[in-house]
Amino acid sequence: MIHKIDFMAPTSMKIGRTAIPYLDNSRSFKIYYNGGVKDVNAGFTNAYFPTDNLVGFLNQKSLNVFDKGETKNLAGVCDQYFIADSVILFLDSYKGEYRVYYNGKITTVENYIPDSILSHVKVSDNIVAFDNFANQFRIFYHGVLIGQEDFQVRGFEAGRNTVAYVDNDRKFKIFHNGQTFIIDDFAPSSYKAGTDMVAFVSNDGYFKVFYGDSLHTIGYMNPQYTVADNILAYKDPAGGMLKVFYKGTVTEMESYYPTGIVAQYNSLAYINSGGTLRLFTEGETFDVTNAELSHWSLSYDVITYQIGEAIFKVFYKGQEY
Predict the structure, then answer these.
(1) Closest to 119 (Cα-Cα) out of 85, 153, 92
(2) What is the helix (H) or strand (E) element at residue 221, kind and residue range?
(3) Partner of 166 at 20 to 30 A CA spacing, among 24, 38, 263, 278?
(4) Do 296 and 306 touch, CB atoms closer than 8 A?
(5) Cα(109)–Cα(132) distance, rounded to whole angstroms?
(6) How far apart are CA 133 and CA 145, in angstroms?
(7) What is the Cα–Cα distance from 79 to 293, expressed in whole angstroms?
């Protein structure tokens, strides 16, 4: 359905999975949510960040969150913050604490800050991973702070439900759904984390994917690859093909590796060599249009595109609107 939500064009707008926050023509901050528009404030908001489930926003230095239709103040003065799909890590400058907002609750994760900054931090989807001031590796997951390692790790990447890291002994480990797996006794050449998935090139040269608590060996190769949410796209060095790993299945997309690939959530999109806008989504491939486009974009699993000056279309789950 198409809803008219304002009479004049907004001065700025961003798209989340469940909400569309925007500054209207008078710079009042509003959020389209659950079929209606909520007026948040008039002229105070200077930054805002929509995610899957939340909208974080700043009124000067005051950090706030819009969650399930309600607005909550997190910190009166906030100098650092990391906003993800379901969690917000922030520095409450008044209290001198690093705190996490998750599932409607605020939890303090660090209350000693010698230099007002965590040594290393990654916030992704529903998980927070960091080395604290004592060089201990910690993970905040499902509302619980986990003492993962007593020593600083050599590197880590975070995805949904997942943290991949190389520990102090150079062992490669993956934390997934509350369990820790020792994947290899040697650090990989490279690794990237997504949703319930980690792709990596092992120390002995094999391209592998950790998915479903098990390892999938793709082949002996060191490919160009991208991980975004549920999507792993990679260039097969043997023939230069574009291949996609999605929920345990590999799909051959092109006999070459296109430029301008956009991957997000369950989808991957690009313009192929024939000028067709091609979409891989939830395991299926669609040729959306071969018209000459003025603009196109992928938001989650939805493609919007413009033909000429006045034709705007939306493509979602195989249907064009």
Answers:
(1) 153
(2) none
(3) 263
(4) yes
(5) 9
(6) 15
(7) 41
With a CB cutoff of 8 Å and minimum separation 6, the contacts of 311 are none
Q: Enumerate the β-bridge partners of residue 105.
A: 102
What is the length of the chain?
321
Listed residue (286, 277, 274) closest to 319, CA to CA: 286
Rounded CA-CA distance 319/296 in Å is 16
pLDDT tens digits, the chain, 321 residues: what are they? 788 899 999 999 999 999 999 999 999 999 999 999 999 999 899 999 999 999 999 999 999 999 999 999 999 999 889 999 999 999 998 888 899 999 999 999 988 765 555 668 999 999 999 988 888 999 999 999 999 999 989 999 999 999 999 999 999 999 999 999 999 999 999 999 999 999 999 999 999 999 988 999 999 999 999 999 999 999 999 999 999 999 999 999 999 999 999 999 999 999 999 999 999 999 999 999 999 999 999 999 999 999 999 999 999 999 999
Contact 202, 212 (CB under 8 A): no
The DSSP code for 117 is S
